[in-house]
Design goal:
This protein is mainly β and 344 residues long. It is 9% helix and 33% strand. It is built from three helices and 17 strands. The protein has helices at 33-37, 287-298, 316-329, and strands at residues 8-11, 14-17, 52-64, 70-74, 84-89, 103-114, 117-122, 133-138, 147-148, 158-160, 165-167, 180-193, 199-204, 214-218, 240-253, 258-264, 271-273. Strands 3-4-5-7-6 form a five-stranded mixed beta barrel. It starts with 7 loop residues before the first strand and ends in a 15-residue tail after the last helix.
Length: 344
Amino acid sequence: MVNRSKTSVKIGALSVCIVCVLPCIVQGDVLTIPQVQYTELSDGASPYNGQVIDCLGGIAVAKVAGGRPRLFLQDPNALDGWGAIQIKGWASDAFADVNIGDWVQIEQTFVEENRGTTFLQYWDENPDGSHPVLTVVSHGHDLPRPLVVDVNEIKAPEYVLAEDAWLVADHRAERLESMLLQIRDVVVVEKDLGKAQDNYRLQSFREPNDPNAHCWASDYMNRDRQKTDLYVPAIQTGRRFRAVMGVLEQYTSLGDGFDYYQLLTLSEASVVGLCPADLDQDGDVDLWDAKLIAEQLLAPSAPSAGDLNGDGKVDSADFDLFNAAWRQADVNGDGIVDGDDLIP
C-alpha cells in the first residue's frame, strides 16, 4: 500500500522499516490524514468514525507520555487544514520506538471520536477482531511549519448562563484539529478556566477592543510544566507574548457543560515573550523602538523602557543592549523582529 525499498521488521506490536522512502503513492483504500479528518458534519465527526481503516499517516510532530500516550501525526502537504490526527496508545510504551520527525503509518486502526477530537486507536484488538499495525516508514523529516492563524480562528467559548455551560458557537477551528499552530501578539487576560481550571484566555493586543479576538490555551501537555502546577511559569495575567505555539484540541462534554477548543503548548519554548528591544511592547522591534531609545538617550528622564540593564538610567550601555537584542532576535534578517522570526 506504500512504496518501500525494503520490507518492515516487526518488533512486538511495532513494525519498523529498515530501509524506506517517503510514501508517495496511495493505493487501494489507504486514506490520507485529510481524507480521515475532513467533514461537513455539524458535530465535526470524521465520516470514518466507528470504522477500521488503513491510514497513510504523516510526520510525528509531538508525543505525550502517560498511561494513555498520544502521538500527533501531521501531513506536511496539508497546508490549509484537516492535516493532523492523534493516535491514542493503550500501553505506556506504545510509541517508545517512534521519534519526532519519523513518518508513521498505521494500518487496521479504529477511528473514534472522543470528546470532539478524532483519534486513531492503537490497542491490542479492534472491535472487529483485527489488530492495528504501526509502522515507522522513514526517519529524520523536518517538522511541518506551524500554521500561523489569527486568534479569531480559535474562538474562545462563551459562558451560557441558562445552561451553566462554556460553549463555542464558532467551530471554524475544526479544520485545525491536532495541527501545529502559532498565534501572535497575544496577552494573558484570564486564568483558571475550563473543566480542569487549567485553561487561560489569550487576547490579541493588536486589537485590544475586539471582544471576539480571544482563544483558550492550556499547558497540560507541556513537558516542561511542573506536575504540581497548572501552567508553565511564563503564564501570568497581563504577560504579553510575541507568539504562542502548540497543537489544537477540542474538548466536548456537553453533559458536563463544556464545548471548546484549546491550544496545547508542548514546551516552555512554545510561549515566546517579547524581545527586550520591543520598547513599545507592540509585538515587534522596528524603527519606532529605535526612535524611543534615541529619544530617551537624548533627553534622559526617570527610568523607562529603555533602561535595559536596570541601572536606573538610559545610556550607551542600554543602546548596545538594544542593538544586540535586535540583531539576535532578527533571525530572518529583514530588519524587523516579529513572529516571522520564530518560524523554523
